[in-house]
Each structure stands twice: as structure tokens, then as C-alpha cells.
Amino acid sequence: MIEPILVVVMLIGMIGFGAPIFLALGASGLLGLYMARGSLAFFFAPTSFFGQLNSFELIALPLFILMGNLLGATPVGKNLFHAASLWLSWLRGGLAISTVGASAIFGAVSGVSVAGVAAVGSIAVPQMLDRGYSRGIAAGSVASSGALAMLIPPSVPFIIYGAVSGVSVGKLFIGGIVPGIALALALCLYIYVRASLNPEEAPLDTGTRAPLRERMRALGGIWHALLLVFIVLGAIYSGIATPSEAAAFGAAGALFIGGVVFRVLDWKTLTSVFASSVKVSGAILLIMGCAKIFGDYLNLVRVPENVSAALTATNLPAWGILVIIMLALVLLGMLVDAVSLIVVTTPILLPLIVTLGYDPLWFGIVLVMNLEIAVVTPPVGLNLYALRGVCPMLRVEEIIRAVIPFVFVQFVMLMIFVLFPALSLWLPNLL
């Protein structure tokens, strides 16, 4: 029993000393396999690594990342916020609500939360501050709504979960639609109520409302990207194309929009986009492969079975065990990045979830909802630092304080979908 403890201590120690997460996972997993199977570990580890990445569905991951980065290099994010602000300027807290709407749509375009925070936040925060909005609403609305990209398809975390669990990525995409819309509406409702109770935090725009012609013209700067996303997701949902095939079409379409429609993809920009996409994709795939080595060791020493037996022995109702799992994932998400959390915890928790009688598809949805909280909570909350990078007028401490009430809203929505699984499963079952 001492071996698993040594492996976990090594993992935590390497992460604590600043080792790359993929190296910490791979080295600690290899150590565990060596203690359990001797020199055969040097055969098991490469087999685990290759087996994890040898998946046709995983081709969608770098292609969707490339699609998001290509569209992120265009003015789509700026145009989204401009259009949303013109249509919602009459509403109390309209600019902040526009931010949520723009982030949700940009999430469907990019699939990466940090990209949404950077693209929308760099425009939305200065405009909100200039119009008298409080720093709390400005920072909180951007950081929290940027996380919607993780849930609204095409979602990179769903692709990773599908590769690890064997659940259909297409069904996961469909399952993320209702929770994604519900969470976006919940954030908008919170902003509206907060702005109504404290009008000084979000002054109402007293200027002349933009004429209909100008508002319609604003939609002209975003319809190309929205049409592309509609075609890509429509091809997946209708069964015409697999997620990987649709992702290839999406990347080609994004290249056309950026290079021909907006004409912003010169050679330097294109090189930077491809380099960034390769770097992000390579990092995620490295983590996935090394996490599989670590996960296979945990399976070898029967950690999932032991965890399942221990929680079942508490005689708590199924919903009580689920709440414990969600709280544990929230805490882990504050310390570990989203990719590692999915790949390491899914093999441990999924057998327990199935034993409790829940659908693996549903668990993937609530797991990603949990990760949305993780990306806006310190110390590993990437959205916090992404917002600080594009909005230097905000301090990190300010951003952290600003997101706390928004995190509470996210957690309430998470618990609703945890306790009522049918809410997230009815659309996949219908289609």
C-alpha cells in the first residue's frame, strides 16, 4: 500500500517544484508501474502513451484549436461585442450582458476559454470602465463568461473527455448546448439583478439608441463566422461528418474567412497562428499521453475500485456522493489544469458514476461545467491571468474578488445539473 502513496507524493512534489505537468504525470506513473511490474514498465508506459493518442477522434482537437486561433486573429471578437452592445444598450447592465453574449458566441467559434477572454475582454473592459461600470462587474463578467467556451460546442474539453471515456464527442457537443445556454442566461440574470439593485455599478446608457439600420449593419461583421460554426456543428449533429472531418472543414473555412473575407492573415500572422496552434495542441496531447501512463498505474493497483468501494460504504445517497465528488473536483481544479484533471480523474470516477446508475454522457457534461469554475479560481485560474494580460489597468487581486459572486452563480448552476441529470440529457436523447 506504500507504493501508491510514494507515487502520489512524487507527483505532488514534482508539480510543487515547478516541473511540467506532463513530466510529473509521466515520471510518477512510470515509477508506479516499475514498482508494480519491474522492467515491464518500460514496455507498458510507451504502449499506454501511444494507445491514448492513437484515436481518429483526437484529430479534431488540433483542428478545432487551429480554427479558433484563425478566427481569433480576425476582428470577429470585436465585432461580436460591438453588435451585442448595440442591440442591448437599452438594458440595465447592457454592456456586461453584451459581454456574456459575445463570449458565448465566441466560445462557439473558438472552443478555448482563454481566447474568448483575450478577444472580448480587451474591448469590453475598457468600454465598460469608460461608461462608468464598476470594476467588479467589468472584470467578473469577462472572466466568468469566457469559461463558456469550455461548454458550448465545439469544446476542446469534450473532445478530451470523449477520447478518455469512449463517449461520443458528437453527443457531448449536443449535451453541452442546454447547460451552456442556461449558464449564460444565469450570468445575464445575475448582472441584471445586481445592476438594478446597485445602479451606480452599471449606469444606464442615456444616449440615443442606435437606429435599426446600424444594428443590422453590425451583424454583417459576424455572420461569416456564425455561418461557419452552424455548418460545422450541423454536419456533426446530422451525421454527415464526424467531429474530425467537420473540424477539418472548420479550419479551412476559418482560413478562408481570415484570409479572403477580412484579409488579415498575412504571412507573419499566419505563421504565428500555426505556431501557437501547434504549441497548444502538442502540450495538450503530451499531457493526455503521460496522464494515461499515470491512470493505467492507478487502474493496475485498483485505485478506482477502492475509491468506489470507500464512497459506497458511506451509505450516502447517490446525490450525496455526487456532491462530494463535485466539491473535490472544484478543489482539484484550483490546483491542476483542466486537461490533466479530465484525463486523471475520469478513469477513477467513471466506474463509480456508472455503479451509481448515472450516464457517462451526463458525467462528462457536469465535469466540464466543473472545469468552468476551475478556470476562474486561483491559483491556476487561467482566465484570471489572461484578463490581466489584456487589461493591465486591472490588478490580479481585483479580478479575483470580482469573479467570486460569478463563481457562486456557476456553482449553483452546476448543482442544478448535478441533481437533475435529465436537464442535460433530454436534448441528446431527443436527437
TrEMBL record:
Question: Could you tell me the superkingdom of the organism this chain comes from?
Answer: Bacteria
According to the UniProt entry, its GO molecular function terms are:
transmembrane transporter activity
Membrane topology note: Multi-pass membrane protein
Give compartment(s). Cell inner membrane
**The UniProt record lists the keyword Cell inner membrane:** yes
Q: Which GO terms describe its cellular component?
A: plasma membrane
Q: Mind telling me which residue stretches traverse the membrane in this protein?
A: 6-35, 56-76, 96-125, 137-160, 172-193, 218-240, 246-265, 277-295, 307-331, 338-356, 362-387, 399-427
The primary site where this protein sits is: membrane
Q: Where is the TRAP C4-dicarboxylate transport system permease DctM subunit domain?
A: 8-423
Q: Which keywords belong to this entry? A: Cell inner membrane, Cell membrane, Membrane, Transmembrane, Transmembrane helix, Transport
Q: Which family does it belong to?
A: Belongs to the TRAP transporter large permease family.
Q: What does this protein do?
A: Part of the tripartite ATP-independent periplasmic (TRAP) transport system.
Assembly, per entry: The complex comprises the extracytoplasmic solute receptor protein and the two transmembrane proteins.
Please give the name of this protein. TRAP transporter large permease protein
**Species of the source:** Thalassobacter stenotrophicus
